[in-house]
Design a protein that fits this description.
Blueprint lengths: L11 E5 L10 H20 L3 E7 L4 H10 L3 H18 L6 E4 L3 H16 L3 E11 L4 E2 L5 E4 L6 E3 L17 E5 L7 E10 L5 H10 L1 E2 L1 H5 L2 H4 L6 E2 L1 E2 L14 E2 L1 H20 L6 H8 L1 E7 L3 H15 L6 E5 L2 E3 L2 E2 L10 H6 L4 H10 L7 E3 L1 H30 L10 H19 L3 H22 L9 H21 L4 H10 L34 H20 L17 H5 L3 E11 L7 E6 L4 E6 L14 E5 L5 E3 L2 E3 L2 E2 L1 E2 L4 E2 L14
Parallel strand pairs: 1-2, 1-14, 2-3, 10-15, 14-15, 16-18
Antiparallel strand pairs: 4-5, 4-9, 6-7, 6-8, 9-11, 12-13, 16-17, 19-20, 19-22, 20-21, 22-25, 23-24, 26-27
Length: 676
Amino acid sequence: MSDGPFPTDAPAVVTCGLPYANGALHIGHLRTYVGGDIMTRALRLLGQDVAFVSGSDMHGTPVAVNAAEEGVDPETFAMRYHEQYTETFPAFHIEFDQYGHTHDAMNTTTTTEIVEALIDAGRVYDAEVPVAYDATGDQWLPDRFVEGTCPYCGEHARGDECDEGCGRHLEPGEIEDPVSTVTGNPAEYRERSHKFFAVSDLQAELSHFLDELEGTTNAQRQPREWVEGELQDWCITRDIDWGIDFPGEEDLVLYVWVDAPIEYIAATRQYTERVGPEEFDAERAWREDGQIIHVIGRDIIQHHAVFWPAMLMAAGFVTPRAIMASGFITLEGRGFSTSRGRAVWADEYLETGFAPDMLRYYLATNGGFQQDVDFSWERFAERVNTELVGTLGNFAYRTMLFAHREFGAVPEAAEDPAIVSAIADATAAVEAAVNGYDIRAIGEAAMGLARLGNEHIQQHEPWKLDDGDPRKAQVIAECLHLVKAACVCFAPIAPVTMQTLWEQLGEGGSVDAVSLTAADDPPSGTLSEPTALFAQIEDETVAELTEALHARIEETASTPVESADLEPITTDRVSFEEFGALDIRTGAIRAAEPVEGADKLVQLTVDLGLEQRQIVAGIRQLHDVAELPGTAVVVLANLEPATLFGVESDGMLLAAGDDAALLTTHTPVPPGTRIR
């Protein structure tokens, strides 16, 4: 997988997880794509030959379900969002070399090629499996056409994923208490023949793959539970009309997670068709020695670190060198909820008039890539004003304005070896950051040069020196060199703003086209009068944006719930004796911490009066973990214990709705009081 540190002689491919073409993008989505774009630009800065590709995920039940609700065909529905994405990404300077979609001819051909290779290798077999069926509606219910209870954690789940609890991928037939999302009818399980990919045959190879995998630690560690445990084979077909047909079968289509990552290969091939193999050779990249880097959200690690490399191995393709899995974006301490109006949409950000580069910086450097990042307009403004305006922007502007007025060009002067050394250290830090898949460190290297420059110019105060004093020219020359070096290092993060700075420095061409070594040389052109690089965000603007966000959330929360939006009440009745067997107690949360490796799980210590229980709940994206201690809750105390991500859970919190509103009592009640 690895040919040594970047840059390598082998071609590289950077991919971003495919967005489902079923809704508008918000800034939580953008984190992954900004990260992929920064990584690509940084690799090129090092001299690496690299293609940046992605595409819209057009298939699968999410698209089919939403299209049916609108009364349009899935292709029309998905293409609408695909076209929207092709406009949104460039607006944030996310510049794919090829952005396709999974419904095009190239992906269909490539998917068929790979599946046939799996068949020829003896890795695909038939098996009877229980599939949810709506007898009233007379239709099979794959994936998101069915909902029910997760068999692992007991939370409400979709047919293919425990999206509200433990986050596990669910195979057909696993979900308990199935209900049709089409008609609301209880579903029944019927035996159905489907195609399976023998992932378990590749257990040793996958374990070795994880041993060598580079990238973020969550992508390296999280899959080991699945690979080194009882590795399950993977059902790769579904009973649905929308998708790519399984070769030779008329009534089965491939599961969306088969053809979705194959779009990475298809898009790379399309790029090669457009520019020619001399410019970029897709077949070499995917068949021989390519350095493949996947940039994804951490909720799809399992697919990219287990199923996808298994497919590549079995079909004779190159496996990924690295997987960078981002943390989530929260909004004012809580998870995004588009249904509750708790989101900042991509087009909403653009309407503010704020530079996209400012958001790129916030998303890239506000914590490590795999860590969750909280967004608020207040925090955003603080970092922009303090760091982009106050540090980098201020240093560049004051230096170049003084130089332009006093010298008109870069003065000739010998530089302090300490300044030269600091620049060399910064470029070395950028190279190390790229090889460590640490995009935050790229920004820190550039910002460090700006801080040094501010200290340098403030210490020497060249405006107080006489024109004939050689120290005046030297200080300005040194500061201009620091500005140029910061510009080169910061260009992957803020490409448009740094191009402006590049031109103000009198440098020709595009800053995107230079190598990292360009930072070693001081600027040599004629300086133009500078303009401010970043605009200050005023308190009044922050207040207005925050007020508008809160108003939307409150308006959405106060909107009466239509009966059609409610889950149907089950027709299955329980006896009074069965209800009496449930031991429901009041409790109080005493401690809370995230479960390592799990996106949504929180490990809680709950006081039940007579004892304290350890309970794992899927509420991490919906509640501020730090604020949970002291919260009064209601607990199902006699539920069978379960183990989630290696942590035992002894009980279940009761909560309501999509926001997991924790149930409590109207007045304070001692922990341990039984609910009757």
